Amino acid sequence: MKQFLVITSLALATLSNLAYASEEVSAWTCSDNKQFKTTGTTELIRLTWESKTFDLKRETSLPGSLRYKNAATGHDLVVLGNKAMLFNIKSGTRMADFCQTAEMKTGKLPHLFAGAEPFVQN
Question: Rounded CA gap, 71 and 119, in Å?
């Protein structure tokens, strides 16, 4: 039984990684020289922060914003039209502020808004 569970766990982990393998990696740079990377879709992203990887699911958010959370780890990514912020809701800390991709620095919307709700830029 243990062998079956180990094989099943490895198979699921491999399939999970394959789902992200074809996704484009987006690098985010933040104030205070902090940075992270994301891959995934509008509904589920994989966040790489300080050499650790976390899966975050899209949550309900205010119009014009996207919010991704991992309740187990406390990671909470809030993406607006011009910046993103990374929080840890378990510790109540803001881990990174004013984060942008290279495209956002040129005035484009975050890639995560592609296929998401309409966003009106002021």
Answer: 26
Neighbours of 49 (CB within 10 A): 20
- Dump pLDDT digits (tens) for 9-27: 444 444 444 444 447 899 9
59 vs 23 pLDDT, higher one? 59
Which residues touch 108 (CB under 8 Å, ≥6 apart)? Answer: none
CA distance 27 to 39: 9
Rounded to an integer, what distance in angstroms lies between the CA atom of residue 118 and that of residue 111? 13
Asked if the model's pLDDT at residue 106 lies above 50, the reply is: yes
Q: What is the pTM of this model?
A: 0.76
The answer to whether 24 and 39 are in contact (CB under 8 A) is yes
Place of tokens 């958010």: 61
